[in-house]
């Protein structure tokens, strides 16, 4: 099946605060496609990721997953005691309860182009190298779907571009679906198949190359001081004939 995960009219309410975090979310996550989720702080992006991962259940609506779906998750970072002697190989060995064959680790590191770092201390890694190690860790399961939470955070501009090119290559080579939360629109759009602008509900969505000249998109960006229009960010489709106050933050 081409569809890996299907969300239909999904809503989520925080029972502690009685706040409706997400409302009426309908989307399909497909094989060999990159879906990018953007939106302001507090828009519900993290909650949506948790729903996709199955860490929480929707208050209303349904989430259907392909049979035997394997998901690889890449967090923003993981905490490691600075006094713990640990190299990349050992970190990946500890990523699963069962023993991992050396050739599996080698293949994952080679896919993210850092096989040479296998025996390097994790404490000496640069920001970009760390992100690739975390991506290799997510690949160990041979996932059908990769879920990445702001994967290029803390990486320099050149590193961001290279990372998103790598994601595009992985999508093409492995035919896996990729869902990522990102603020790095200028870099990520070239590889993205679909963009969703989230602000409790899906206020904008579509392919990034279909709405480059849409004035509604530019109007949304003009409302935030964090991302000036001069960045030349690629656009995405706005399907509504009404206006939102949905803006995109840039951290």
Describe it.
The chain has 251 residues and is an alpha/beta fold. The protein folds into 2 domains: 1-70 and 145-251, P-loop containing nucleotide triphosphate hydrolases (Rossmann fold, 3-Layer(aba) Sandwich); 79-142, no CATH class. It is 27% helix and 24% strand. It has 7 helices and 9 strands. The protein has helices spanning 45-53, 88-93, 102-111, 127-139, 157-174, 185-188, 215-222; strands spanning 3-14, 19-30, 34-38, 60-65, 71-74, 145-149, 177-181, 194-199, 201-206. The strands form 2 sheets. Strands 5-6-7-3-8-9 form a 6-stranded mixed sheet, with helices on both faces. Strands 2-1-4 form a 3-stranded antiparallel sheet, covered by helices on one side. Strand 8 (194-199) and strand 9 (201-206) form a beta hairpin. The chain is globular and about 45 Å long. The model is unreliable at 225-251 (pLDDT under 50).
State the main characteristics:
251 residues, alpha/beta, Rossmann fold, 2 domains, six-stranded mixed sheet, three-stranded antiparallel sheet, 7 helices, 24% strand, disordered C terminus
């Amino acid at each position: 099946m081409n569809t890996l995960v299907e969300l239909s009219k999904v809503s989520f309410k925080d029972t502690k605060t009685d706040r409706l975090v997400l409302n009426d979310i309908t989307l399909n996550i497909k094989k060999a496609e990159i879906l990018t989720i953007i939106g302001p702080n507090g828009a519900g992006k993290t909650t949506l990721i948790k729903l996709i991962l199955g860490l929480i259940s929707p208050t209303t609506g349904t989430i259907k997953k392909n049979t035997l779906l394997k998901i690889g998750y890449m967090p923003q970072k993981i905490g490691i005691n600075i006094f713990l002697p640990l190299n990349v190989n050992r970190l990946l060995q500890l990523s699963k309860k069962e023993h991992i064959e050396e050739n599996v680790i080698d293949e994952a590191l080679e896919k993210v182009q850092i096989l040479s770092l296998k025996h390097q201390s994790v404490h000496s890694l640069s920001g970009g190298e760390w992100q690739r190690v975390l991506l290799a860790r997510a690949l160990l399961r041979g996932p059908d779907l990769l879920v990445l939470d702001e994967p290029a955070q803390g990486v320099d501009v050149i590193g961001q571009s290279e990372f998103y090119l790598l994601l595009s290559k992985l999508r093409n080579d492995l035919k896996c679906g990729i869902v990522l939360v990102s603020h790095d629109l200028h870099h990520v759009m070239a590889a993205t198949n679909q963009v969703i602008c989230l602000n409790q509900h899906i206020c904008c969505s579509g392919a990034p190359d279909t709405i480059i000249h849409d004035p509604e998109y530019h109007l949304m960006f003009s409302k935030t001081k964090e991302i000036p229009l001069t960045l030349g960010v690629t656009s995405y489709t706005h399907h509504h004939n009404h206006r939102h106050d949905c803006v995109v933050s840039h951290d």
